[in-house]
Design goal:
By secondary structure, this protein is an alpha/beta fold. About 45% of the residues lie in helices and about 15% in strands. The termini are far apart.
Length: about 170
């Protein structure tokens, strides 16, 4: 993979661990590599998405690589995405960018995704934001906790591109 992207082997580990930011051009090359394995990663021309269908999406995940990668992917499919890696800053950033959709990791330090969802629902400016839980955890009890916290949808990590598109599409009227 490093050879295909034209970088040193250790660079990929640095990106993965959040020790260095992955340049957008390298991310696009990585998407092309992934599209050769899984066609759902095929790039979409953002200009082909009508402006009325593009959403402002906030991604909150303490894993920098996961947050930035998902934000880049959302931009590739035609949305406007902002990544936040420190959950303590999520509400403040959300008030600035006014997302229509917020994708929140659940297991984060400081403020977990369940508490963030409650904060969004109690905030007059953010209460109507569509909330999507993004987590590796699953099970009926876990899904019930997510529902009770105020989430509109749940997706398991790693996020499946087709499912992610379907979830965003269900909020097209907001």
């Amino acid at each position: 993979l490093a050879a295909r992207l034209g970088v040193a082997v250790g660079t990929i580990d640095d990106w993965r661990m959040g020790m260095a930011a992955m340049p957008q051009d390298k991310f696009l090359e990585l998407v092309d590599v992934l599209a050769g394995i899984d066609p759902s990663w095929k790039r979409t021309d953002p200009s082909a998405v009508p402006a009325s269908d593009a959403k402002r999406i906030l991604v909150v995940d303490d894993n920098a690589d996961a947050a930035v990668t998902l934000a880049h992917l959302l931009e590739l499919i035609g949305h406007h995405a902002t990544a936040v890696m420190d959950s303590r800053q999520a509400v403040e950033v959300a008030r600035e960018v006014r997302p229509q959709i917020a994708i929140l990791d659940i297991n984060m330090p400081h403020v977990n995704g369940l508490e963030l969802a409650r904060q969004f629902r109690q905030d007059a400016e953010l209460k109507d934001c569509c909330l999507v839980a993004l987590t590796a955890m699953d099970g009926l009890d876990y899904r019930e906790m997510i529902r009770q916290a105020g989430f509109d949808a749940h997706i398991r990590k790693p996020a499946d591109t087709a499912l992610l598109r379907a979830i965003i599409a269900q909020f097209q009227d907001r």
